[in-house]
Amino acid sequence: MPTPPPAGNRLGAFFGVFRYSRRALVLVWQTSRPLTVGLAVCTLVAGILPAVAAWIGQLIVDSVVDAMALHRDTGEVEWWPVLRYVLAEAGVIAAIAMAQRGLSGQQSLLRALLGQKVNVMILEKAGTLSLAQFEDSEFYDKLTRARREASIRPLGLVNKTFSLMQNGISLVSFGVLLVQFSPWAILILLVGALPVFASEAKFSGDAFRLFRWRSPQTRMQMYLETVLAREDSIKEVKLFGLEPLLLSRYRTIFDALYGEDRRLTIRRETWGFLLGLLGTLAFYGAYAWVVVETVTGQLTLGEMTMYLMVFKQGQAALSASLTSISGMYEDNLYLSNLYEYLEQPVAAEQGTLTQGARPGDGIRFESVSFTYPGADKPALTRISLHVTPGGSLALVGANGSGKTTLIKLLTRLYEPSEGRILLDGSDLREWDVQTLRRRIGVIFQDFVRYQMKVGENLGAGDVASFEDEARWQQAARRGLAEEFISAMPGGYHTQLGRWFKGGQELSGGQWQKIALSRAYMRESADILVLDEPTAAMDAAAEAAVYDDFREHSREKMTILISHRFSTVRAADHILVIDGGEIIEQGNHETLLAANGRYARLFRLQAKGYR
Ligand SMILES: Nc1ncnc2c1ncn2[C@@H]1O[C@H](COP(=O)(O)OP(=O)(O)OP(=O)(O)O)[C@@H](O)[C@H]1O
């Protein structure tokens, strides 16, 4: 992880401001070469021309003085020698205005292009990441931060780098003019300005470190904002009266952060002022020197005018540079975060198999154990099972016993920590991941409610038929969603959810029917996994779902997770899991006969229905 320069190293701190400038520049260059070149040209022009304007200013005053002398001596007036300089000055000022317009125009075009490019880079990368990476809070934080400011930060850094260069060029060109007066004057100005540069670099560096360090608090604030202002949480927040509590947490975090900010800001501005005073003193010392030299006749009036302009604009360029430096640290912070995210290593997919060593062998778990990253206890221990085509397996167990985890391993969202999982005789790791996923149709408990059209919500189950209306209807029929979909105003083209205009919200059970239909879209799948697919459905719908399911999945391998024994009992094989281990297995009759956990739970549920 790139770390900010150590506080003691002033020079390092000063150059640290350029740490990501090169990378930002490369990014901008890749986004649009013509705009980058245009930006560089305008920066150069806007940097040099102020000095040229100051120099022409001198020529104007000197030629006016000469013309006045001529008029006094001869009574004649020569207009052209004077007015041509005025004309030239007007031309230069117009060119500066043009360069500045060019800068802002090109910047705004680049901002749009770059925002899009960076966002696409971020999202493309997201597609290559593993589920475990998404579940890592620090990593997730990086992703959110990277996305939040994608459109402004990279260009901001480039703009500020350019602006620093532009002001640097201006300062050098002013120096070229000043050196004719005295090299000492430049030295005085340089010595006067250095302390304030150094202090700005140091304090900006401190702010940089502070930002990084406080990231978890900022994240908590963002989370509270989401809970307090999102439609899916506001219902509960209101009913439980959580607003004051959450808001007070939000405020407490802010107060702590603000305290630190305040201390840093006060120190930064106080030192900035005191050291800036040195620079101002140096400037006005040199200014007085110029005035004295003019009075004693060493300098012409024109030269004095030029130097005065140079001093004024030099000051302005200096303070603009300081502003750029302090902003650049923040942009650096963003870019360091962006690149850390983009460079996150991704495990290469090595599997290439599209067919197993023993086709038709089905799914085998061989003594599979799994511990979630960062967890101290395994979620699954030595699980062995075998499901053949046409076979059905049901998983039963208390909450948190590891049922969903088993499915996540089967679908290769995670890899076993020990043991192996085989499909058709070959290890899942050897399978081409796309082929593998095409063979599996799955609905999880926490399926996604896409804020899209009804049909697209179904089509998502098989991207190849995403827009295929005939297939939508077929899947909806099997998932028992057809009836309520046809009653909707736009049928399959009705927008779902509340996020977009005209969107229709569905009931919990209706959403579940949509999810089930989505799983049925995957016609090529010969492994069907249903993780509590009917928990929100009414009893009639549930019975219909399972009748249909049994009817249509004769050739397939099915894995079913349910807390309802009425559905579990029909499975060929039932695994009872507790604390990640298989404690009983068999079919409904043998398990009842064994009179163990399964039998006890079954009787408990049956009693409830009596
Ligand atoms: N992403 C995760 N990271 C770390 N631990 C997890 C994660 N998901 C689940 N766990 C833990 O793993 C264990 C098994 O969880 P799992 O979701 O497999 O249970 P389950 O049997 O499906 O439960 P339920 O019946 O409530 O759906 C639990 O102790 C849970 O706390």
Automatic annotation (TrEMBL):
GO terms for molecular function: ABC-type oligopeptide transporter activity; ATP binding; ATP hydrolysis activity. The chain crosses the membrane at residues 37-61, 81-99, 184-203, 271-290. It is a multi-pass membrane protein. Residues 37-330 form the ABC transmembrane type-1 domain. The keyword Zinc does not apply. Residues 363-604 form the ABC transporter domain. It is found in: Cell membrane. Its main location: membrane. InterPro entries: AAA+_ATPase, ABC1_TM_dom, ABC1_TM_sf, ABC_transporter-like_ATP-bd, ABC_transporter-like_CS, P-loop_NTPase, Type_1_exporter. The keyword Disulfide bond does not apply. One of its GO terms (cellular component) is plasma membrane. Keywords: ATP-binding, Cell membrane, Membrane, Nucleotide-binding, Transmembrane, Transmembrane helix, Transport. PANTHER family: ATP-BINDING CASSETTE SUB-FAMILY B MEMBER 10, MITOCHONDRIAL (PTHR43394:SF1), ATP-DEPENDENT PERMEASE MDL1, MITOCHONDRIAL (PTHR43394). This is ABC transporter ATP-binding protein.
